[in-house]
Amino acid sequence: MEETTVIQVIAEIRSDFPTKFGIPRQSGLVPELTARIVFEPEYRDPNALVGIEGYDRLWLIWQFSTVAAEYAAGKSWRPTVRPPRLGGNERRGVFATRSPYRPNALGLSCVELAGVENGELIVRGADLLDGTPIFDIKPYLPHIDAIPDALGGFAVEENGDRLNVEFPDELLALIPESKRNALIECLRGDPRPSYQAARTDGREYGFPYAGFDVKFVVHGT
């Protein structure tokens, strides 16, 4: 028997990424990225944040809003997906991946709590699109949530996909100083899908970031 329930959007995130291309593949990969969590009016109660400064990491439960929009337009989830990390050619079960195309299009991210300002949360390392709806916020408990020797499946850490970034000084000077390192780290992480990462033919890629239109090409590393 199919059951449904209603969950409320409690907040949305304000980040520097209006489109998904360019966003780090996972939370925490670019700790320099700063975003702001803005609560909906009915949840903008300072009492709900009492004691939150005692934690330096938070779990965010949120929605892949672009995928949810596709579902609303008639697209449906599939039991298998093609993870970009595997070249986009091999299939895995959706529950063995972090693909956004899941039955409920829910995401889970661990972010650093950088501060609380006027009832809003300042976080670092988020991998969320600007305007992403947030359903819940929970504290990260290191003695429970961290299991260093857990198996990582096909998504084991890879250190060989970092790029050297050459950023012309006259262009870098246009970026606010507070956002430069974050942008460089996003580029170093190679925003291209894994199945395109082997291409070094000078093709131009681009994404909007903090109000700028960033374009780049890759030659070798």
Description:
By secondary structure, this protein is α+β, with helices and mostly antiparallel strands. It is 13% helix and 25% strand. The protein is built from four helices and ten strands, in the order βββαβββββαααββ. The mean pLDDT is 92. Strand 9 and strand 10 form a beta hairpin. The chain has a six-stranded antiparallel beta barrel with strand order 1-2-7-6-3-8. It starts with 10 loop residues before the first strand and ends in a 5-residue tail after the last strand.
Summarize it.
With 221 residues, the chain is of the alpha+beta class. It contains 4 helices and 10 strands.
How many angstroms does the end-to-end distance come to?
A: 52 Å
For the biggest β-sheet, the strand order reads 1-2-7-6-3-8
Radius of gyration: 19 Å
Order of helices and strands: EEEHEEEEEHHHEE
Number of helical regions: 4
Strand content: 15-25%
Which residues form runs of ≥5 with pLDDT under 50?
none
Q: Helical proportion?
A: 10-25%
Structural class label: alpha+beta
Q: What characterizes the major β-sheet? A: 6 strands, antiparallel, barrel
In round numbers, the mean pLDDT is 92
Shape: globular
Total count of strands: 10
